[in-house]
Specification:
This protein has about 150 residues and is α+β, with helices and mostly antiparallel strands. The chain is built from four helices and five strands; from the N terminus they run ααββαββαβ.
């Protein structure tokens, strides 16, 4: 049985590209990547990937998405992103929504974990960031690694 995006285009299989597509994209019920790119044109959406200390002995890789349109915001919420304040630095994570909101997703880990697990987590974060970039008009150019949202946009 075929399934369709909310824009009317057929959902195409991506299992050959991503190990577990259900984890990365709920897809039906949202615009396809091409239509999402079209509605995102008026926005300067950026994806920031950074590392933060989130608690004693705990760190997190964090994805922060700024300046998204409503359709992309709904998609991010379905992927587990939360609407929060933008982070300022590795030691100043975003808190409650203020003047510079972003969509934020955290991937916590113990700072004493074996390096191989951190590398695997880094690969997963990179994959998710690039999957999100497929939905933006400027693609992978929208992704900044080891960077934080501009505090004065």
């Amino acid at each position: 049985m075929d399934s369709y995006h909310s824009c009317g285009h057929q959902v195409l299989p991506i299992a050959d590209l991503y190990a577990d597509e259900s984890e990365y994209a709920p897809r039906s019920g949202f615009f396809c990547s091409h239509c999402m790119q079209s509605v995102q044109v008026p926005f300067n959406t950026r994806i920031y990937v950074n590392l933060q200390q989130v608690a004693p002995g705990m760190a997190a890789f964090v994805l922060e998405v700024s300046d998204s349109g409503p359709e992309f915001a709904d998609f991010l919420a379905a992927l587990g992103f939360a609407f929060r304040q933008a982070s300022l630095s590795e030691l100043e994570p975003g808190g409650e929504v203020g003047l510079q909101p972003v969509w934020r997703k955290e991937f916590w880990f113990d700072v004493n974990i074996q390096p191989a697990h951190v590398v695997a987590l880094m690969d997963r974060i990179r994959e998710e960031a690039l999957l999100l970039a497929d939905y933006l008009p400027n693609g992978a150019a929208a992704v900044s690694f080891a960077a934080f949202p501009d505090p004065n946009p």
